[in-house]
Design a protein that fits this description.
It is built from 8 helices and 11 strands. It is α/β, with parallel strands linked by helices. The protein has one domain: DHBP synthase. α1 packs across α6. It is globular and about 45 Å long. About 45% of the residues are buried.
Length: about 190
């Protein structure tokens, strides 16, 4: 199903199913980030290596703080850059399943700067934040370009048209490290070095 049926999308996520949703960069593949079985479904749909963690999208810093342990500097960084195309790697709380983090003690947090994504998150709580593509293929800017494998596994597709493209910058503030340069990378680097 396509369109903007947030209630149906939220029910699908609550039922452990997958939803394709728009962000300010590309389309994401969402499932309940706190449900290990649902997260497994994301890995299966993407044919993703289980050693590669998946990030978690939340609607705001308060929700991030419920499921992670945020240092003051990380909070300051989040206040500066999120919502936006930046993923912040922070210490995971005990509710975050190992499958999401690939067994690590840290998890990537995203607060998308997109009205539809935020509305979905208001309905669901934390969901997976990974591109809606099969691993090793390009990110999807238009739902019409979704791989058949993703389309078949998604219970709902929230279609807002073509996404701008680009990827998020992934940063570990505690280590002053940019793991992946994307949008806002220069501003992030400037902030880390200030």
């Amino acid at each position: 199903m396509t369109g903007l049926d947030f209630d149906r999308a939220a029910r699908a996520i609550s039922d452990g199913k997958l939803v394709v949703y728009p962000t300010e960069t590309v389309y994401g593949l969402g499932a309940d980030a706190l449900d290990a079985d649902a997260v497994e479904g994301v890995f299966d749909a993407k044919d993703r290596d289980r050693s590669k963690p998946v990030s978690m999208a939340v609607p705001d810093i308060e929700t991030a703080a419920e499921y992670t342990i945020l240092a003051d500097r990380e909070r300051a960084f989040i206040a500066e850059f999120l919502p936006g195309p930046v993923t912040v790697v922070v210490e995971a709380g005990p509710q975050v399943p190992d499958v999401l983090t690939a067994g690590r003690d840290r998890v990537g947090i995203r607060i998308p700067d997109h009205d539809a994504a935020l509305k979905l998150l208001d309905h669901t709580g934390p969901i997976t934040a990974t591109s809606a593509n099969v691993s090793g293929t390009g990110s999807v800017r238009d739902p019409d370009a979704l791989a058949a494998r993703i389309r078949q596994r998604a219970a709902v597709i929230l279609d807002t048209g073509t996404a701008p493209g680009g990827g998020s910058t992934v940063v570990d503030v505690s280590a002053d490290t940019i793991h992946r340069r994307g949008k806002e990378a220069d501003a992030v680097a400037d902030w880390l070095s200030a």
